[in-house]
């Protein structure tokens, strides 16, 4: 099968993928990349190859990619500037002989009408990979269930209300763990080349329904306040959220922008997340976990 590269292996998705790959593969066949390789020392001690890689510094990438045949390219966090980072990674990987690139993308990334600005980075990266000469697999994730169970639920419980511009748009919330397991499945199986998979959980749920679930599980009433896109921007302004990706302070306290989040909500409202797929189960052999299950797993973090 050849050696497998995981980029961003010190991040949450990458670390989980590395752990799962170590359960399935010989450690000497695994190459884990990070800008901060010291964070991966435990993997090195288990026999995996740990290498420094900085996507902003292409000179570091040839040595980082050497010997790899399949690569999991985990999208970086820098909305607006990550396409260049991804291009550097893809070009270096292919130059070093990587034959198959698996990319963590976004649901409906290839649909021109999708208003979510984050989709532009993902589709541009998909096109770079498709043109690279390597086989490709795009994993187009729905919204993570963990984002609802933690980043959305905790302030909603604290405040008792949740401004929202998603309307009654439905989402097939998917656990990040299921997305990790699917990525590892694609990396360790054959037959997934030149294919895009939409990854969702088992059911379609709206944000108001998700917040009702939080109320039920927490005993804390939450009122969802339906606002328009301008109202959502005003809410984020009140929190000090930068409006545009170009305004984000590198390594600052808020790594996202309001136009990103507001157009994401618009995408949900307009139905671009309203789809279910059986890809998780087909690739992993396991039924994807539900949003309720993810909430129960993380309930200990709630301010009850």
UniProtKB/TrEMBL annotation:
Its EC number is 1.6.5.2. GO terms for molecular function: NAD(P)H dehydrogenase (quinone) activity. Keywords: Oxidoreductase. The keyword Oxidoreductase applies. CDD domains: TMR_SDR_a. Residues 8-147 form the NAD(P)-binding domain. It is an enzyme of class 1 (oxidoreductase). The keyword Ribosomal protein does not apply. This is NAD(P)H dehydrogenase (Quinone).
